[in-house]
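Exercise: predict the fold of this chain.
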Amino acid sequence: MPPERITGAVAAAVTPLAEAGGRLDEDAFAPLLEFYAASALDGLLVFGVTGEGSCWGIRKGAGVAELAVAGAAGLRVIVHCGA
């Protein structure tokens, strides 16, 4: 299967953190995802702003990615996994 091209307007999502960056602030994340979904975007980049995804480990990062996909209401979600 050939890779999909990324096209359209894609926003880099803010990752709201709690406990001095130790965990995702889920209460703040859901409204942000709703805002992005209502903003005529084509996609959303998760963990692409400050690189926190590379510091959180696979399990925690996968949990955030799953929440983003579930809450993004049809937006394409790109998850940054590198440093």
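Check your answer against the key: Residues 10-79 form one domain.
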